[in-house]
Amino acid sequence: MTSASIGVQADRPADLDLVRRLRDPALLLVPALAFLAFIYLLPLIDLIRISVSGPSWSSYFERVFAIPLYWDSLVRTMQISVTVAGLCLLFGYPTALLIHRSRGLAQALIATAIVLPYFIAILIRTYAWMVLLGRNGPVNKLLVSIEILSEPVQLLFNRGTVLLGMTAVLLPLMVLTIYSSVARLDQSLTRAALASGAGPIAAFWRVMLPLTLPGMGAGFLLVFVAAIGFFITPTLLGGPGDQMFAMHITQQADSVTSEGFLQALGVVLLTITLAVVAVAGRFLGFEFIWGGRKLTEATPGKTDLRAADGSRRSLGASAADVIGWPLLRLFGRLPASCGTWTVRIMGGLVIAILILPIIVVMIISFSSASYLTFPPPGFSLRWYEQFFSDSNWMRAFWTSLVVAAMSAGIAIVLGASAALGIVRSSIRGKSAIMLLLVSPIIVPPVVLGLSLYSLFLRFDLVGSVFGLAAAHAIGGLPIVVVILSASLQGVDARLEQAAAVHGASSLTVFRLVTLPAIMPGLAAATFFAFLHSFDELVLTLFLSSAELKTLPLMLWGDINYRLNPVLAVVSTLEVLLVVAGLVLARPVLATSRKAT
Question: What are the TM regions of this chain, as residue ranges (predicted)?
Fold first, then answer.
């Protein structure tokens, strides 16, 4: 045997080891992580750098907290966010129970009434409340007709409408989070409590409530974190005394002399958000962000979902013991029908709050009147004709389609690769990687838009279609990863292993085995990533230009300066788009429920 052949044989184990590493599914995470590092983490780091670049690192922050306007706004933001989260919890829990206790067609209709508004743009839903509560809206007309008011009054632009609008926008998030917790309960525990002589109230308080406290906490924190960065709803429904902290960031963004101070405002909002998430993650686990349970890291080629930690259940039971017995003695005397009717009434009220504004807007889109009024004096297609014949609206519509299609393409390619890497690899730290992948959904959009603006200026991407699509893909990526991870968990990994054993390449296995199995999830993820970009407004406000206007940007301008039924046409078309998407997503939603 020659020395050359000995050298070749010595190299073969190393070559084989290199091939194995190159075929490791964990490498599929690299494109998504590199994308987020450049277009998401780097701008946020740069935002922090600019905020501490004053005469001293804290000079801009000292100014933020020294000016009463910003301090009062920050306190107001916390108060409004806590109030909204509390209202969502109060009305969301009975609604989740109503979905859980319903059966058949009734359950499907109730769930649809909750899910449908969740996917409709915040701008559209806020506009619906402006129509509903306007001087010529149905609420004013109803109050006048039953003689509570003698004439229509201004119901908008106050704290009450801000709370109502934000609660209505965020209620679906609370309901879906609590319902996922309720649906995973072992129903035999409640039946055992009833069989042991406990009444319905006691069984609920001592069994169901403690076990769903983690879900309630997750819902409260998700709503609170989302409310902190709210900008659209308070701007449109609130008055001068209802300005939230995010609104000051957008106002300061127009000033060329605010660099450093503007970034400090963003860092303050980002720090509060991350601090809340960190505290929540300490007690609930960071998995509450993506609605799952902790990812198993020890089993190669497989990702299981572990049951909730027992300490959290005992914590819930202890809390129920401390605060529950006085209430239990008070309500234990009530008949079981009281609880049933409470759930039905509160759930019905939530459904009405979510659906009625959308229905009113859809009806107004067919109005023959030249102004917003309900009910319409007559029906006509004039506003649809005006929308489709207006070159500005149609240009914005086609721009939104192109940007959304490009954004969805970027999100799907990167998200599908990352989902395969998460589910099929045995890499350590899966939960940390998943947290990074979905973390864009917890960063306030105004902070993300502000941080991206500096990066896009540097690379001449402001006002470009590709730049806007890439920015929108930051939010579409978590949607794709979560949906496709759930779909992949429903695919038996042994089928892929069997195909590989019989000689199929990794690409062939994916094309012939994995892809057909996850196709419903892939279609749903594509649609929701597309819809996320199509509806995106806040990032667009920072990154668009006078020549690049999307449909939400046109809608935002008209809502601020003039209200007419053309806006109702845009809203109606969006609702129809969402309905089509939900029909498409039904298979993957069913698969996801089975997987969890």
Answer: 26-45, 78-99, 106-128, 162-182, 203-232, 261-284, 349-374, 394-420, 432-453, 465-488, 509-531, 563-585
Q: Determine the average pLDDT of the residues in 191-196.
A: 68
Q: Report the Cα 535 to chain-centroid distance in Å.
A: 12
Helix/strand/coil for 491: coil
Most trustworthy range by pLDDT among 315-324, 333-342, 478-487: 478-487
Q: Distance (Å, rounded) from C-alpha 544 to C-alpha 557?
A: 13
pLDDT band at 255 (very low <50, low <70, confident <90, very high): low
- Closest among 355, 372, 356 to 364, alpha carbons compared: 372
DSSP state, 257?
Answer: T
Lowest-pLDDT choice from 47-56, 202-211, 257-266: 202-211
What is the rounded CA–CA span in Å between residue 542 and residue 548? Answer: 12
Q: What is the pLDDT of residue 480?
A: 94
* Burial (Cβ within 10 Å: 0-12, 13-18, ≥19) of residue 326: exposed
Give the separation between CA 100 and CA 90, rounded to whole angstroms. 17
Alpha-helical runs (H) found in 102-137: 104-118, 122-133
Reading the block at residue 366, the tokens are: 């067919």
What pTM value is reported for the model?
Answer: 0.85
Question: From CA 320, how far away is CA 214, in angstroms rounded?
Answer: 13
pLDDT at residue 586 in the model: 63
Condensed to tens digits (0 to 9), the pLDDT of residues 466-487 reads 999 999 999 999 999 998 988 8
> What was the pLDDT predicted at 450?
92
Does residue 299 have a pLDDT over 50? no
CB atoms inside a 10 Å sphere around CB 466: 12
Q: Is 477 helix (H, G, I), strand (E, B) or coil?
A: helix
Among candidates 231, 546, 528, 531, which has minimal Cα distance to 396?
546
Contact 551, 387 (CB under 8 A): no
Predicted confidence band at 74 (pLDDT cuts at 50, 70, 90)?
very high
Comparing 95-99, 145-149, 369-373, the range with the smallest average pLDDT is 369-373
Q: Is the pLDDT of residue 402 over 50?
A: yes
Interior angle at CA 130, CA 123 and CA 150, nearest 5: 170
Euclidean distance between the first and final Cα of the chain, in Å?
58
DSSP assignment of 55-79: SSTTHHHHHHHHSHHHHHHHHHHHH
Contact (Cβ atoms closer than 8 angstroms) between residue 442 and residue 289: yes
DSSP 74-100: HHHHHHHHHHHHHHHHHHHHHHHHHHH
Report the sign of the C-alpha dihedral through residues 476, 478, 483, 489, in that order.
positive
Average pLDDT value for residue range 437-451: 93
Nearest to 382 by CA among 368, 400, 399, 363: 368
| Residue 248 and residue 265 in contact, taking contact as beta carbons nearer than 8 Å | yes
Domain ranges within the chain, ordered by starting residue? 25-56+381-596, 58-253+338-380
- CB neighbour list of residue 85: distance below 8 Å, 6 or more residues apart: 170, 174, 220, 221, 223, 224, 227
- Across the range 76-101, mean pLDDT stands at 94
Residue ranges of E strands in 295-381: none
CATH entry, 25-56+381-596, from 1.10.3720.10, 1.10.10.10, 3.40.50.11270, 3.30.420.10: 1.10.3720.10
